User: Which sequence fits this backbone?
């Protein structure tokens, strides 16, 4: 017998980047996944498939900002806990520390997931950069892995098409900056910054201690905060500073990511629209770590997918949307209470889901 829906009309969007392992024939990874709750949710949902895009673009789009038009740096800075003066004004650029190395004649980028950087080192690097490039702009270190540059007016590019760091971390890259006239000043800045970082005593000490040197910066997400855009959410639950900044800019209340679905339901308004951002699969996919991906997905199943599947079937949630930026496409599965009782829609293992996505029949 179907349960009678409980009172409340909660609409929940779950943003889970890299939900589907990008190698559909990798049975070593896919066969280790035990996620009946997620499998059932996907089988009894309506799939919306769109061109692939980054997590950042998906987040910006969720808050009403067109792809390519979002000033990611300004929004992300707005979501940081430690803001510099006038963080909501000016032209900002993400200036994140990275390590570049050559592997089989290709340049590979490693982000902060691959190296430990303490705040003393981060501030020393930023201080040296700030002193050397006073005419370019003002540096701000929000955390050891997230740095910013407030660009002077003469250094601002007209067009600066660079993917977010999440889209290039762990991957081969062809070039660091666009080969356009508009980016000439920033290319010159980056070349000089690399030389400065290479010679910095903090990097010499890191190498002496067997640590990766910080030998470059990833410049991306330039722009100023646009006019306020009304968002469709009543609450955002995340530890991602970009998600928090987008929410802050829209006037949407923000909350730290709960430990699990039970904690979320304890504190969330039952008659509201919520966004939860779960990033536990992003890093293992970036760095092709199948073991960690399996571990993290199985944890998400226990803490989130299975409880949310049960809550949806009982009417505690009126609508659930699972959205994932993946190598296959930007995917969204939408489901209601009625959909969860379409028992003829048989759950499939994620391996079959992945193979179906490649064939285009999912």
Assistant:
């Amino acid at each position: 017998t179907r349960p009678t829906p409980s009172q409340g009309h909660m609409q929940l969007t779950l943003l889970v980047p890299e939900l589907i392992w990008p190698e559909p024939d990798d049975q070593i990874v896919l066969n280790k996944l035990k996620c009946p709750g997620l499998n059932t949710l996907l089988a009894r949902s309506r799939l919306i498939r769109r061109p692939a895009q980054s997590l950042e673009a998906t987040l910006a789009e969720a808050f009403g900002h067109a792809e390519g038009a979002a000033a990611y740096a300004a929004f992300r800075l707005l979501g940081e806990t430690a803001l510099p003066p006038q963080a909501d004004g000016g032209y900002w650029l993400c200036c994140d520390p990275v390590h570049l190395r050559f592997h089989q004649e290709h340049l590979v980028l490693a982000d902060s997931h691959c190296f430990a950087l303490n705040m003393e080192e981060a501030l020393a690097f930023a201080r040296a950069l700030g002193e050397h490039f006073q005419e370019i702009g003002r540096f701000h270190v929000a955390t050891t892995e997230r740095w910013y540059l407030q660009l002077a007016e003469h250094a601002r590019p007209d067009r600066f098409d660079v993917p977010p760091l999440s889209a290039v971390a762990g991957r081969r890259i062809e070039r660091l900056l666009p080969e356009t006239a508009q980016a000439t000043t920033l290319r010159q800045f980056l070349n000089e910054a690399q030389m400065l970082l290479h010679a910095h005593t903090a990097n010499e000490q890191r190498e002496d201690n067997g640590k990766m040197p910080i030998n470059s910066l990833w410049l991306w997400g330039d722009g100023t905060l646009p006019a306020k855009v009304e968002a469709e959410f009543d609450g955002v639950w995340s530890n991602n500073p970009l998600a928090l900044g987008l929410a802050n800019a829209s006037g949407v209340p923000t909350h730290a990511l709960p430990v699990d679905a039970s904690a979320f339901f304890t504190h969330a308004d039952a008659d509201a629209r919520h966004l939860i951002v779960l990033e536990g699969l992003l890093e293992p996919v970036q760095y092709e770590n199948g073991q960690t991906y399996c571990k993290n997905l199985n944890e998400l199943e226990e803490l989130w997918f299975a409880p949310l599947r049960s809550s949806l079937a009982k009417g505690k949630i009126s609508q659930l949307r699972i959205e994932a930026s993946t190598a296959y496409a930007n995917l969204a599965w939408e489901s209601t209470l009625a959909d969860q009782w379409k028992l003829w829609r048989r759950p499939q293992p994620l391996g079959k889901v992945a193979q179906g996505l490649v064939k285009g029949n999912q």
